[in-house]
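Our consortium's second objective concerns turning raw sequence data into structural hypotheses that experimental partners can test. To show how far this objective has progressed, the report includes one record in full. It was chosen at random from the queue rather than selected for favorable results. The single chain below, 150 residues long, was entered without modification.
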Amino acid sequence: MAAKRDKGFTLIEILIALVVLGILMSIALPGYNSQVTRSRRSDCMGVMLGFAQAMEKHRAVNYTYQGAADGGDDTGPPASTLHPDQCPIEGTALYNLTIEEATATEFTLEADPVGAQDGDGALSINELGQRFWDKDDDGFEASENTWSTD
């Protein structure tokens, strides 16, 4: 009479499956996190374009970029009537938006990463539409004169 074999998985089979799953996760998770970071940055780029348009509207009404910041200042967070001060516009802030410079004829806007996005590098746009992304988070350089989701 043949011995009856129990049905099911052995401990070794389960451990091998867990090891394979762990290897797959270690390969996939960094790519996923990188994609989430790029997606958040891309969303903020769109918000920054809206912020730049709000600055142009402010200039059309006031004949200057000055006074667009909170409290009528020239620098700092935007006035609440001009534009929200964060990306995304609602929910948890991933970037804080500020007016870095505002004169009668020029402005520079900046989005500084915070929270889950911290360390990704700031985004900047000016009145000429020039866009900068501080990829290495060490200050804007001439080679960083583009918005990229790399």
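The partners drew two points from this record. DSSP finds one helix and five strands in the chain. Helices lie at 11-62. Both points have been shared with the crystallography group to help prioritize constructs.
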